[in-house]
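Q: I have two molecules that I believe assemble together. Could you output structure tokens for the complex as a whole instead of separate predictions?
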Amino acid sequence: ETGVTQTPRHLVMGMTNKKSLKCEQHLGHNAMYWYKQSAKKPLELMFVYSLEERVENNSVPSRFSPECPNSSHLFLHLHTLQPEDSALYLCASSQSQGGGYTFGSGTRLTVV
Amino acid sequence: GIQVEQSPPDLILQEGANSTLRCNFSDSVNNLQWFHQNPWGQLINLFYIPSGTKQNGRLSATTVATERYSLLYISSSQTTDSGVYFCAVMNYGGATNKLIFGTGTLLAVQP
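A: Yes, here they are, computed for all two components at once.
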């Protein structure tokens, strides 16, 4: 364990479902991130939260909705996803936006 | 935006061999990190190294920021070193205010 915990590890959902991914960090960091990793593509930054305030929204479709209720928890709410949204979703945290990142184990999402 | 190129894209080693992975970037950075992604998808931070040299066991890294490259050295490789190695850079507070990843080097260490 790296200190960043993601659940669930695997998720299969239909295109009409609503689900949420959860991320929790136990490192005392104050910045958290969602990344998407698709096959054959570099990791793509989706959202950045610093001190619980969203500071980056990287042109992500509205079917992905992040939530950061406190500095230790980050959620990614999913609804009406498309098959091309199938990917590994990684959460990360850092002491500050300019510091070293610690990643969780990821949620492997399959949209059917 | 900043470009991050890693080489080689793929590498096959026999156990015990040494290797050097390279990361070139196209603009000034003040944050550079090396990660190892294992076959199960876990990304492990190996080094936070915006400049200088660091060592951790069989791994070491050197970043020459003025020449815009970083090197990751793996000595006496083991099968557990297999996976993808990513370099990621940022110019925090500057032109590239988010961590940008390269496309990675896929390493396979054979017994």
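A: One point stands out. The interface with chain B takes residues 2, 33, 37, 42-43, 45, 48, 56, 58, 88, 90, 92, 97-103, 105-106, 108 of chain A (CB under 8 Å).
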